[in-house]
């Protein structure tokens, strides 16, 4: 364990971008946890007199059309957006890793069918699928989570399947069988642990994608309803003011989205380097 | 004789994450027109690097840091990149390992040969195609007209290598460099490819540098030999003289370690000893010899494995191994030897027939339940590629301890520790390496972990699936010696699977020759070699590169 | 001749093998319809005052009283005959509405894909030819940023810069500003139609309208395309057969283009298919931002109004386009890679 930490430290020294990204993610999580206590204003309280103020000392990021403080709303939104993305990714990861690992290990017809279905699904316009699902299941936040989880599922199944597949016939897997291990134990105790590091990278990259998807859904008016602060809906509300030059309504939530996704993506790339044992010396 | 190539004090370095690493420390050699030279060495010796430096095909990380390469009087190291093109293919060309990957997968082989011709000669497409056809005939490809339009994936490995040869000789270069041209090919294919290469270079007066790890191959096809070790030339000379009277200790060790038709396990022991291998005294008393009349330990009866392909992977195979006996399973790729070893280990299910172990039929137990069968601990296996046979997340200790934990129910504690350490010690693995993970171990050390894991349970039958195929020859000698010792110590029976006839003959009392899933011939190791009955066995034996280190009078 | 035969056989086989995918989507949309909140009969009834009797009659006439499998069969028949139901918002059959709006969406998507490929391929290739160079780092930076930017934000920011600040772009609503005359409806693609009729002014007007939304979408898919081009070019350049090509002295350009690029484009082709279908999804967002009169914004309006027939039709349409695109990618792949046809 300490060797891993030491290695992580070594990688990070040589790669400050990853360190920065991990710090960024940590900061985001912290903001999400502390959100209710660190907002300068009530994120929902409107005040018509203060409407559409550009960024100033009083309102660092300006105010929106109802006079709500954009910074406060951004902070509160961090919580919701991270929650949606994290729960969606955890759901699809848990289901996808297990399904994919068993299919990849077992092979045969079932595996081919699953593989084919996953390939088809992956190439399908997934955002449209998510849209239809939220429309069908009902316009609620939970359903955004479910829809995002489902459209993420094919990636995990495919990934786990491919990773297990290349290891399935490895000598050490056969050796474990010769050493008295059954199939179930091999998948759970031998293959999955070996696949997990690679999947951690995938999770990090997918978190960013899930956030974009959830924000996109709420941008078109699905899932999150009006007064709730959420990045996508904030952009949607600010959209009609952009042609009047009131850029801060869109730019700040947009920037928040972008930086969050950027942090997750960079962290994913960095994790790849850290977790790859071949690069350890 | 005129000098074609002269290398003076060549130095090459690679820049890696860990800094610059020197790959060649001052290599000097020379080559005359039409001469054949074998560049021999184990992995990391720098033999390939030398070749790539000559053609300036080193990858980005590699740099020539010193010395000269004079080719027909010009220093290749100083030729600007854009002028190299005129040299490559026209003056010197190369043949690579893994021929199928060396050809463009989405271009027909005829076009690729024509490309090579048109790179140096101003010919129309039609003329180039006609020449390509002639070249295909020259490399003895059957039905050359249709093969012109074939893609690499439609051809066998041996055929791809012949296409590669056709490309290399297309513009009649003076020098042909063959980098492990037959590694990965079957021994009979190796012979046809090498014979062709030798004939073509001789006919056209080309010089050839053959880079190989196989002493026999170099001995058979080269007039002179250069032996390399860790980026240095340790010895060079005329082939027969060098082999009959090697001067450098490394050359001597290499020769001793290379299996020949006459070498014995005792030779290996000597080679191992010279390499500094110290094994503990015999640790266990051998099992008492079986009383006469006891059934064989393993009996395979009419075993069949059908994957649904046109030919069966294993087709009606029968043989038996007595207690403490050893049987070699020999065959080329596709012979079904690996499938057979997995059937016997009960890792996969048979289609028909039976496997009888110690009088009990175990072929009927489904492979997925066999881990609960009492015979599981009696049949263990050592796998081919040591790099791939250890769980990357297990330390050496955990790898060896795993079967003890699952099959003997040992919990962490003094007993387990003692058993693991004993197995490691018997396999010649120093105890301080037990905490290491696979990526921190060398190939030979990983092989020892794999062996220790298999013998930890003291199985009665050990299946060895090409246990040394991925190892350098000097390490192979040590491991083979170790295995032979372990067998005698424990009275284990061996099923030794290999493509290398010399190795099998050394290690096994009886040998079964397989071809396309069927038994071609069975006999005692000695008689099978001295007096092969089937045409196929004779062909196999003839294809092994001759290499005889016995002292011969040096020719003047 | 035999190649042509092989290709047509291949097309046929792919069409047949994509039937299950289409059927799956049809059944899925049907099931989605059934779990949708609300009773369709209530929607179609004359009004909130409709009596229980009227609703029951409607249920019968719509087949809603029959068991689900029968309903599914009826639905399949409807889909097969091109009957996707009526939109409540427009009062038109969904098929008619879709057909009128599809060219707008396709024109936008194709333009965006064209722009993206035009930029991404050279960037990826240059980056791969000079790994570690300034260009390479720049490309990687752009790619990293590109995947992080939500389309709806980048679209709005482009509007802010080019419409509000610089005044270069026209009012970001619709395909053509209200004062210009629409061209005769030939292909439905304004850029093509204006070009055919030789109306340069009209063409320019349409072009300035499409360029911002197209760039928005292109930005979104630039990253995966460039990244894939770079990665596959790099791996091909490091492969054995490139070394072979160099070892026989082929000219550098021939090595790069005929040997490396052609092989490197194979995975890019696959990605381009996936990218196209991502763009179909992203259409929803971009069309909303730019009030683009395409199928996606139509669907979105219907979705907000709880009008589900268009949503269902949209998903089916997407599935159809998706199958078509995959088929085309597959055929192109089969032509480009001789190894595929054997399997």
UniProtKB/TrEMBL annotation, chain A:
InterPro entries associated with the record: BP-dependent_transpt_permease, MetI-like, MetI-like_sf, OppC_N
GO cellular component: plasma membrane
Pfam annotation, one family: OppC_N
Keyword DNA-binding found: no
Annotated ABC transmembrane type-1 domain residues: 78-268
Entry membrane topology: Multi-pass membrane protein
The keyword Transmembrane helix is assigned to this record: yes
Protein's name according to its UniProt entry: ABC transporter permease
Gene source species: Roseomonas indoligenes
TrEMBL record, chain B:
Topology within the bilayer: Peripheral membrane protein
Single Gene Ontology MF annotation: ATP hydrolysis activity
Compartment list: Cell inner membrane
Gene3D superfamilies the record matches: P-loop containing nucleotide triphosphate hydrolases
Taxonomic lineage from the root: Bacteria, Pseudomonadati, Pseudomonadota, Alphaproteobacteria, Acetobacterales
Cellular component aspect of the GO annotation: plasma membrane
Keyword entries, A-Z: ATP-binding, Cell membrane, Membrane, Nucleotide-binding, Transport
Name of this protein: ABC transporter ATP-binding protein
Limits of the ABC transporter domain: 5-255, 298-541
GO biological process: peptide transport; transmembrane transport
Family indicated by similarity: Belongs to the ABC transporter superfamily.
